[in-house]
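Treating backbone geometry as a discrete language has practical consequences that deserve illustration. Part of our work consisted of pairing the sequence of a single chain with a tokenised description of its backbone. We regard such an encoding as a compact summary of how the chain folds. The amino acid sequence and the backbone structure tokens for this protein are reproduced below.
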Amino acid sequence: MPWEPLLERGEGEQLVARSSERAQSALVEPMPERLHPELREALAKKGFDGLYAHQADALASAYEGHTIVATGTASGKSLAFNLPVLDTLAHDRSARALYLYPTKALAQDQARALHSLKLRYLRPAIYDGDTPQEERRAIRRRTNLVLTNPDMLHVGVLPNHSPWGDFLANLAWIVVDEAHVYRGVFGSHVANVLRRLRRLALAYGTEPRFVLASATIANPTELAERLTGCDVALVDRDGAPRARRQIAMWNPPLIDERTGTRASPLAEAADLVADLVEKEVRTICFLRSRRGVELILKFARLRLEERGRADLAELIAPYRAGYTPAQRREIESRLVNGDLLAVISTDALELGIDVGELDAAICVTFPGTVASLRQMWGRAGRRGTGLALYVAGADALDQFFCRHPEEFLDRPVESAILDPESEEIFLAHLVAAAYELPLSPSDEEFLGPRWQPAAQRLVKLGLLRERGGRYLPRGDDFPARRIALRSASPDSVAVVESEGGEMIGSVETARAHSAVHPGAIYLHMGRSYEVAHLDLHARHALVRPFTGDWYTQPKKETDTQIERVEMTREVGNFPLSFGTVSVTEQVTAFQRKRVSDHEVLDLVALDMPEERFATQALWYELSDMALSDDFPLDVLQGSLHAAEHAQIAVLPLIAMCDRWDIGGLSTAFHAQTGRATVFIYDGHPGGVGITRLGFHRFEDLVRDALRLIGECPCSAGCPSCVQSPKCGNLNEPLNKNGALELLTRLHTS
């Protein structure tokens, strides 16, 4: 293969491991006779003379009840959910269908595919924030398949349901594509939006059926049922063909053994992209950071220009948020048509947009979940042997995987976590539901058994009023507008560019102190801004363009108060608990660090108010044996802190979350427990179930943290084991050896 010399070059230090996935032949079944003749004819013209096994299974299952299809990338899940919908629309010309996508780009991609079928009875249309006002009425009146996103459904359709009455009265199908995206805070919100949709549909006389499509995850049925509130059948017999794929793990070389510093993964990735492009290997390179996307692009182009191949440098394009829809469509089109040799992308292209035939997929640093990694790798080698390459960063998880390549390559995908009854989220949606239709006892079917006590609490808060057992909203407010689906907090701080007065973004109020304090460097759409002023009362932060070579990290003081204990158990001799805690945080200063080598430039004091939020947490207490000669107070605090960091670092191995979704506190003495205690909590107000799973799998959490620290070759702790980029105490104090001892006692007790 053309990339063999590249891989051979890395043998010895950079090439950690190689593996391969075998090719798989298609499992094909005949086209079902029951499909409408016009649909069968259209499929035949597109070259479909049969169905993959999972497509046939999905069709049969969807006719019986709610269904989720969970198969690999590029396995034809779109046809799996299109078949029952298009067949129904062919037989019943009054029927309607609603397709939900997490991004506008995915909806547009599917709309193009539906139009290409040229079915005379099919009238699809996109209805989102970009849809012109003058077209919306016609879409509501005549379209029989509407493609939208949860945000538009939440704020544009459900609160304004009267004009949608005919559509809702005939709603037969709800399709939820890329269901694995709906996890954490976003998924918890969307689960409530779907319950509100079911509730309104029944008010108009219909009970639509769900078909969901998901990448491979550990708990697809549980995810689907938590999202919809319905019993859902699983289809996972993947019958799609798959080409052979070579897999390689690449670790940037160690440049300072004492500090554990490695070469930049961005520079390594740029070299790899340049090498592949030079061999005309069509490549996609993924990185979560928008700034990193631009840097890899810049470095790769420079490498090619230095080699005298400026012509190839022009065949690499970036793809990220911040570009106009027209710019993104142009890049997608150039990819599909083969006009580009490489694209450097954020996870915006991880999802199911058709980008044509690619030969290689590079993932730079661990993307947070094995499921995401496999989605990214699945972009390459769809029709011929492909290369899937992982370039590790200095982060603890990346280096953990480099020390255990066999576990990384064989690791099962994670569980998707969400909690529709997360308190702050649930209460907000109850008010929105009451605005759409007064709440009544029959709503338990959709809103669950906790809705009535929650509604009574909202009455006391002055947000609802009760009349004869029904709950109605107070005032003429529009509650859905106060709920941001991709945030746990109903309120946000607007980020405003000071020179032009343009709002360029927003930050949850609960995170504003850390993200947009005065002097903070704020990143948005690949650009850097310095925060000049934060006004929490007016809820805006004024920023100005920034070109300096440093970034900022806040220093925080954190305290936790146990509010409610829900579960307890013993881990050996150590009490382990799960429940609700109140977290108090205060940003007291921030560090300025140089981008190139992360050296601390200075520490700037801040005078910021305290912020408090309630969330879910697990905590464990260390008995008096911890306060022995082995653990004087200063050693104990550093040991607890390092152990906390390690456990937070490995929690994403259990749940589909990012370490930025998790917070922690370790203290040598906690006033309520009376002991040394380590808290790990959901970083979003109300919590979404991350630490609940950590409580149930705590032994795995301890084992993985112990391995993470114990196998790191550094002497005193480094970014690959116990140091954290999000530490509010700026990684002080940390005691690696003490953490090893504490975790060993937890593990063996």
Summary: The chain has 25 helices and 31 strands. The mean pLDDT is 90. Residues 438-482 form one domain.
